[in-house]
């Protein structure tokens, strides 16, 4: 071979098997070490979230692109393992998700994750912040208002405010089935969040504004039974004023001539008195015990 003596050529060829052996041994040692380390218990595991950069720094690291910064933050939140997160991790995640909301309030994944994780990790205020901004930035989307309303009902124990959020969301829903589902839940929450007479008027107003059909009739039925319950409550109050005590049963209202018969609940649940002598729907008795 031109330019290379025969002995040198043999020497170079002889080096390759030795290099291959070294490479194979190195891979084997690395694999063995990785396997053994992986079997050892992890002490002092790094938390899921250890740092949160200021918003300007996040934008700077994303070459000035706010939406890219929001996406990078969203990816960081998305891959976190909530099963091993501590309270301080949830607090950092909450601040990070609020940052994402400031960078891009319409970020869809951000509000989904906020609704599903933050309230259960003790970060309800942050979840509501993200959902409210998402609802304002996404007027075509009813779901941020649904989650926002659910949190008002479940965590804040405010069914009236929750119902208002659901009704606002229903006005955005394009599918009639979604509209009816939201309005149905809102009607139930209205019954729990307002005085009976006011609840009856609100549900009746919902029925009046609904398009003709079965759902409108259903809302009207709910309003009717609320009016009947309100009437029974006023009759029970009259009985107490007259006899100095509350009735022990609805039949006593019939016995003293305040009512001819106990009204029929159009939904089949029926009316009864609770332990305090107040008229309620019969299915509420078990819930209060």
Summarize the structure.
The chain is an all-alpha fold. Helices cover 66% and strands 2% of the residues. The protein has a two-stranded antiparallel sheet with strand order 1-2.
N-to-C span: 99 Å
Structural class computed from helices and strand pairing: mainly alpha
Q: Percentage of helical residues? A: 55-70%
Tally of helical runs: 13
Order of neighbouring strands in the sheet with most strands? 1-2
Q: What is the chain-wise order of helices and strands?
A: HHHHHHHHHHHHEEH
Q: Residue ranges: pLDDT <50 for 5 or more in a row?
A: 1-16
| Biggest beta sheet summary | 2 strands, antiparallel
Report the mean per-residue pLDDT as an integer. Answer: 86
Strand content: under 5%
Overall 3D form: elongated
* Tally of DSSP β-strands: 2
């Amino acid at each position: 071979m031109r330019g290379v003596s025969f002995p040198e050529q043999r020497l170079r060829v002889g080096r390759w098997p030795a290099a291959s052996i070294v490479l194979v041994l190195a891979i084997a040692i690395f694999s063995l070490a990785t396997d053994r380390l992986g079997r050892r218990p992890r002490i002092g595991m790094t938390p899921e979230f250890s740092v949160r950069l200021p918003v300007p720094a996040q934008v700077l690291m994303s070459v000035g692109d706010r939406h890219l910064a929001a996406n990078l933050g969203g990816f960081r939140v998305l891959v976190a393992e909530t099963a091993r997160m501590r309270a301080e991790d949830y607090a950092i995640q909450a601040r990070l998700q609020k940052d994402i909301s400031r960078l891009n309030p319409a970020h869809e994944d951000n509000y989904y994750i906020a609704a599903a994780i933050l309230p259960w990790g003790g970060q309800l205020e942050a979840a509501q912040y993200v959902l409210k901004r998402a609802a304002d930035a996404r007027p075509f989307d009813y779901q941020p208002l649904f989650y926002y309303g659910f949190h008002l009902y479940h965590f804040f124990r405010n069914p009236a405010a929750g119902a208002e959020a659901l009704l606002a969301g229903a006005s955005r829903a394009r599918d009639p089935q979604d509209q009816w589902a939201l309005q149905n839940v809102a009607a139930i929450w209205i019954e729990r969040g307002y005085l009976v007479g006011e609840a009856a008027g609100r549900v009746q107003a919902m029925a009046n504004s609904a398009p003709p059909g079965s759902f409108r009739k259903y809302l009207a039925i709910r309003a009717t039974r609320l009016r009947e319950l309100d009437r029974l409550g006023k009759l029970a109050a009259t009985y107490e004023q007259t006899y100095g005590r509350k009735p022990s049963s609805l039949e006593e209202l019939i016995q003293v001539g305040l009512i001819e018969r106990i009204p029929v609940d159009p939904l089949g649940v029926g009316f009864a008195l609770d332990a305090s002598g107040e008229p309620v729907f019969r299915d509420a008795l078990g819930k209060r015990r």
